Prior knowledge:
By secondary structure, the chain is mainly alpha-helical. Helix content is about 70%, strand content about 0%. The radius of gyration is 26 Å and the shape is globular. It starts with a helix and ends with a helix.
Amino acid sequence: MSLGMAVALGYCAAFGTLIPPIFRGEFASKVLGTQSGVVILIGIVVCLLGIGIAGLAGMSKERELPEEKKRASIKEFDLKKGVAIATFSGVMSACFSYGLAAGEPIKQITLQHGTTTLWQGLPVLIVVLLGGFTTNFIWCAILNVRNRTGYQYFNSEIRTYPDLDHEPILENAIDAPGEEVARRAKRTATATLVKPEPVRAPMLSNYLLSALAGTTWYFQFFFYTMGETQMGKYGFSSWTLHMASIIIFSTLWGIALKEWNGTGTRTKALVFLSLLVLVGSTMIVGYGNYLGTLQGS
Length: 297
């Protein structure tokens, strides 16, 4: 998980930050051709380094897991498949940044109708988030049909279905061993006489927590679009700050929730180093934007 997150966020930070100015033909003039642009580029590289160190910290923690937990995770381990999916996920996640950049005409129309500069990016979110909603809705509907779980939106009872594909099929009493027939008959009789209590999900709290998660998740882009308007001509660098902040605050939450308790000195040192590097990257990017506001930069 840690390695996958490091790979995904690394690609997302790099592609989401650099591709928009490259696509607009501004990379050479705005990034490589100015002192402030070069400083911002250095900050992006430092951010990627910090994300990589965070991944190393997670891998170090996983190596310290008990043997039984290691065996449980190794069953699903496939390095090639994991790296491929994390790479695809990171590149595709960067498309959110492309969508915000491509929404520039919408921002201009918004400004023409009297919207203040601070709020000009909000209408773009309607279009960008609609794409994310569509793909998630379709895939969830497919899973509801495949797993027969659509009823769970309205019924708290969690039903279980037998795995018919792996259920042993007994043709008749002559073909099957007598002992197996007896065991099967006993299980059937017990299941018929004793009906287990239904397992129920906490519907109200689940709906409330889902709504809270969705609202909180949206607010990151609500405030991101506001901050982007204040970044000047180097607005593309705000995506790097966004990715770095995700790692910084998620790591701080992990420390607060004691997720790193019991780990070795090396792991804790890597966690501290990743935070230090990521904070440093945000300062470098911020300094680069400051240089961009000076005359003659």
